[in-house]
């Protein structure tokens, strides 16, 4: 009756076949969840749009962009970066829920490619975030935001945004596994807010007290937001001449990769340590 | 490495598991024969769940070996995983998905293929009386339905060995009976069941053999009958008319039965004592109490309960005796 047997997992090809089959089952699970809770899925997509509208129209009137740029043009790329950074919470929550419900243990007691649990999670979260980004781009366009650079530059900008999301995925998996059954999830959810606001997403770090401004400039999310503004040729505060702002595109590549180099091994180690 | 003979479904040899300073398992040995229900009975924190998690390939032992269905649980985890089902303390289900979707997902992960998984899901839904649940998400299920679906999910592969870790904790009496009946019907298909429980009644009802676990090791092992007879033979229970007589009656019963000690329970007006010869003890106690003018409401001979075995074996360091030993 079974198409895959333990004997087929000895070969690399057999193992790869199993990893693909199991990862696709895990991904199917995510799609089925979204299909069953369309409201929740829609709210997830609408939340960053709501933030964008709030900041653009409630607060935007009081914001002046250095050099006379349009605030919406400035804000929209920052909100793209923020949406990617907030993805961390979603990943973390999914992982802790599976631990708490015992679903993770059920999976682990099954003859599956154990890594398919992480591969499936990654695929689902990246698909979800790509959808979220598409909705945000649509909302931005409706609000008058445009990219002024080439199409290649625009695609590179989207690539950098998804790269940040992928780095956040591994931070989220690690924190989810660490949090496990504790209240850490809520703490992280609350702490995400000051971390994303301490960036250049909404305003120039120059307007903040000096030490805060420095932290905000070095915030990985600021690197992505700044680089995306540069690539979309949207107004930004890249005139300050500090090293980070001068090398913002480089930092938007370096930061996510550095985060991944730290958190992906930590996450994998924590995952294998579940059996210790 | 020694591979145990094929007649045993589960063999554990010198299993230890330490978390820092804490020893969850402390040299545990266990053999479970194929096609039997083996009860693991013990107080909270005795190491029952740790044992199940090691046998179900979720945890690696610190030392020792365990073989399930003839395969080493650490070296051949995949072989073991195809042959076991695990029912944990809480229903391990995706709450957003429907019952059929859950079974379909798990079937695919057992590599039955999409069509095979759907077919198996239908069979199990019918078998567990869940065929008409429709598309309702599991979060709207009752506790009993959840447990049945959880059990169905652990039986997708018709496993040789099923681990039930406190399967009835938190269930009402009706849910408990449902689970018990399901376990009994599994036995007809030849499945070996390892059952952990805190409930003596559950072990007594279901298990062919019982191992009593305390502080990470097995302290007693045998059939329910064998364990009961370890506490001495039969017992006599005397229910008094009045609590006032309890001290006097305890002394009289000890003398009449020749027992070293009797257990009075003032709240229930009950005195319980071991007896060597059933009939002479019965007539002796009746006569002695009559002579002393102590009025009784009931006198009965019985086998000791597992409760008494359990408390006498684990009671010393837990100190949770319901009753008080009186030495005569």
From TrEMBL, chain A:
Transmembrane regions listed in the UniProt entry: 41-59, 79-97, 118-142, 154-177, 184-202, 248-268
Predominant place of localization: membrane
Keywords: Antibiotic resistance, Cell membrane, Membrane, Transmembrane, Transmembrane helix, Transport
UniProt xrefs under InterPro entries: ABC2_TM, ABC2_TM_bact-type, ABC_2_transport, Nod_factor_ABC_transporter
GO cellular component term of the entry, any: ATP-binding cassette (ABC) transporter complex
Stretches assigned to the ABC transmembrane type-2 domain: 39-274
Pfam families, per the entry: ABC2_membrane
Localization (cell): Cell membrane; Membrane
GO molecular function: ABC-type transporter activity
Membrane-related topology note: Multi-pass membrane protein
Protein name: Transport permease protein
Organism: Phytoactinopolyspora alkaliphila
Automatic annotation (TrEMBL), chain B:
Alphabetized SMART domains for the sequence: AAA
Major location category of this protein: membrane
An example molecular function term from Gene Ontology annotations: ATP hydrolysis activity
GO CC terms in record: plasma membrane
Every ABC transporter domain range: 10-240
InterPro entries: AAA+_ATPase, ABC_transporter-like_ATP-bd, ABC_transporter-like_CS, ABC_transporter_ATP-binding, DrrA, P-loop_NTPase
Keywords, alphabetical: Antibiotic resistance, ATP-binding, Cell membrane, Membrane, Nucleotide-binding, Translocase, Transport
GO biological process, one term: daunorubicin transport
Keyword Ribonucleoprotein (UniProt): no
Superkingdom classification of source: Bacteria
PANTHER family assigned to the protein according to its UniProt record, in alphabetical order: ABC TRANSPORTER ATP-BINDING PROTEIN (PTHR42711), DOXORUBICIN RESISTANCE ATP-BINDING PROTEIN DRRA (PTHR42711:SF19)
Record protein name field: ATP-binding cassette domain-containing protein
Species lineage: Bacteria, Bacillati, Actinomycetota, Actinomycetes, Jiangellales
């Amino acid at each position: 009756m079974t198409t895959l047997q333990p004997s087929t997992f000895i070969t690399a090809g057999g193992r790869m076949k199993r990893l693909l089959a199991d990862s696709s089952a895990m991904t199917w699970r995510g799609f089925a969840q979204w299909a069953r809770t369309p409201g929740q899925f829609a709210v997830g997509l609408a939340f960053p749009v709501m933030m964008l509208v709030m900041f653009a129209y409630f607060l935007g009137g009081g914001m002046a962009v250095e050099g006379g740029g349009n605030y919406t043009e400035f804000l929209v790329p920052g909100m793209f970066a923020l949406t990617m950074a907030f993805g961390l919470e979603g990943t973390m929550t999914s992982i802790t829920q599976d631990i708490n419900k015992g679903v993770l243990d059920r999976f682990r007691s099954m003859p599956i490619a154990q890594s398919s649990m992480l591969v499936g999670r990654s695929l689902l979260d990246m698909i979800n975030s790509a959808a979220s980004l598409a909705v945000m781009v649509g909302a931005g366009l409706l609000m008058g935001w445009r990219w002024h650079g080439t199409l290649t530059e625009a695609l590179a900008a989207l690539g950098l945004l998804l790269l940040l999301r992928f780095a956040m995925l591994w931070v989220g998996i690690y924190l989810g596994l660490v949090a496990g059954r504790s209240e850490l999830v809520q703490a992280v959810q609350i702490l995400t807010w000051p971390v994303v606001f301490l960036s250049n997403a909404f305003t120039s770090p120059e307007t903040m007290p000096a030490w805060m401004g420095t932290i905000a400039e070095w915030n990985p999310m600021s690197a992505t937001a700044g680089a995306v503004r540069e690539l979309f040729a949207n107004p930004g505060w890249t005139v300050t001449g500090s090293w980070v702002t001068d090398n913002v595109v480089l930092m938007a590549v370096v930061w996510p990769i550095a985060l991944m180099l730290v958190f992906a091994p930590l996450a994998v180690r924590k995952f294998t340590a579940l059996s210790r | 490495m020694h591979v145990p003979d094929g007649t045993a479904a589960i063999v554990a040899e010198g299993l230890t598991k330490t978390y820092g300073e804490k020893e969850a398992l402390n040299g545990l040995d266990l053999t479970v024969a194929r096609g039997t229900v083996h009860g693991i009975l013990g107080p909270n924190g005795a190491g029952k769940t740790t044992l199940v998690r090691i046998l179900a390939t979720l945890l690696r032992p610190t030392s020792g070996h365990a073989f399930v269905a003839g395969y080493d649980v650490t070296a051949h985890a995949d072989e073991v995983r195809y042959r076991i089902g695990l029912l944990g303390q809480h229903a391990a289900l995706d709450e957003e998905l429907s019952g059929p979707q859950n079974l379909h997902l798990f079937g695919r992960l057992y590599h039955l293929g999409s069509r095979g998984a759907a077919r198996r899901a239908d069979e199990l839904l019918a078998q567990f009386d869940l065929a008409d649940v429709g598309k309702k998400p599991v979060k709207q299920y009752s506790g009993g339905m959840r447990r049945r679906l959880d059990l169905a999910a652990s039986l997708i592969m018709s496993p040789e060995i099923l681990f039930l870790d406190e399967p009835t904790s938190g269930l009402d009496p009706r849910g408990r009976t449902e689970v018990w009946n399901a376990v009994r019907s599994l036995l007809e298909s030849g499945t070996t069941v390892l059952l952990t429980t805190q409930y003596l009644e559950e072990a007594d009802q279901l298990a062919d053999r019982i191992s009593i676990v305390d502080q990470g090791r097995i302290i007693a092992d045998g059939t329910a009958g064998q364990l009961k007879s370890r506490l001495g033979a039969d017992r006599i229970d005397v229910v008094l008319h009045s609590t006032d007589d309890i001290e006097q009656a305890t002394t009289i019963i000890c003398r009449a039965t020749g027992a070293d000690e009797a257990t009075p329970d003032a709240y229930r007006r009950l005195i319980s004592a071991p007896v060597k010869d059933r009939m002479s003890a019965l007539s002796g106690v009746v006569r002695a109490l009559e002579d002393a003018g102590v009025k009784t409401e009931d006198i009965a001979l019985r086998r000791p309960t597992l409760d008494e075995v359990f408390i006498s074996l684990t009671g010393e360091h837990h100190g949770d005796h319901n009753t008080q030993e009186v030495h005569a």
